[in-house]
Design goal:
268 residues, 3-stranded antiparallel beta sheet, globular
Length: 268
């Protein structure tokens, strides 16, 4: 292994434009895959009209590619989406936000109330700026925002709802102390429109038969049953625009079902 921690190097061809890219599998990439709910990490390459993603698993193996078309060609500025203020009603602490992804050439903004204070954080090619309706703990809030920005920097979603849901969850979390597990929750929410839940029928049948209390009592039993009854459904369709606490519980249930091998979370 080199001083840079490079484990292996391989080439990948973009299916959209046939451009060949060199992928370096290093320690940082493997750590990202280890912390990812899907056990994957994506290496992004910016092409003229699209983003080419090469996925690597936690062992450094190649796990496929995907192309995300840019909404606006590079050189013409960021493609901007403004969120309707109605979607932000009910927030306790946040009055507005701006998320910019240079990798996706994309900006999402949403404001409904003049701010009292503002905090901005950066992660990779992503920036997250949040305006607050009232004074908040700077250190705690900044730590939460950095965790969210880390998830946003690996998101390839163009759905404003994914970003709104992440901000709505942030709104309630900043009243607590940060915890590491939230990285997986944030990642699943910010990528919700790109992740499909696929049920494993035999494992789902066993789960229903024995109904372990740790699943059906800790989480909403009705929600668990809805997931098991849908052989394939987008995470974004499951979450909708639920209350943030309910949404958090739903994501926890999905991650728990995945850890037990009852469902697969698949990109696409």
């Amino acid at each position: 292994m080199s001083k840079l921690g490079v484990q292996r190097v391989f080439r990948a061809r973009c299916p959209a434009c046939s451009q060949v890219e060199v992928v370096e599998v290093n320690d940082k990439l493997l750590e990202e895959a280890q912390n990812n709910p899907l056990g994957l990490a994506g290496v992004a390459f910016q092409h003229e009209t699209h983003v080419f993603i090469v996925y690597v698993d936690r062992n450094g193996g190649e796990r496929g590619t995907r192309v995300f078309p840019l909404l606006q060609a590079r050189g013409k500025g960021l493609y901007e989406v403004k969120v309707q203020p109605e979607l932000l009603r009910g927030l306790r602490n946040i009055g507005g936000f701006t998320i910019e992804s240079r990798r996706l050439n994309y900006r999402v903004t949403g404001y409904f109330e003049p701010p009292s204070s503002s905090i901005k954080v950066y992660k990779g090619e992503t920036s997250l700026e949040v305006d607050f309706r009232r004074d908040v703990s700077y250190q705690t809030t900044k730590a939460w925002m950095e965790l969210l920005a880390e998830a946003l920097d690996s998101s390839y979603s163009y759905s404003p709802t994914d970003y709104v849901n992440a901000v709505r969850l942030l709104d309630v979390l900043i009243e607590e102390k940060p915890f590491e597990y939230i990285k997986q929750v944030f990642w699943l929410i910010t990528n919700a429109s790109n992740i499909t839940v696929k049920v494993r029928p035999s494992e789902a049948m066993l789960l229903r038969k024995y109904r372990p209390s740790i699943i059906f009592e800790k989480y909403n039993g009705g929600f668990v049953n809805r997931v098991l009854e849908a052989p394939s459904v987008k995470v974004s369709d499951i979450l909708g625009l639920e209350n943030p606490q309910i949404m958090f519980s739903y994501v926890e249930a999905l991650l728990s079902l995945q850890r037990r091998g009852v469902i697969d979370l698949v990109i696409g």
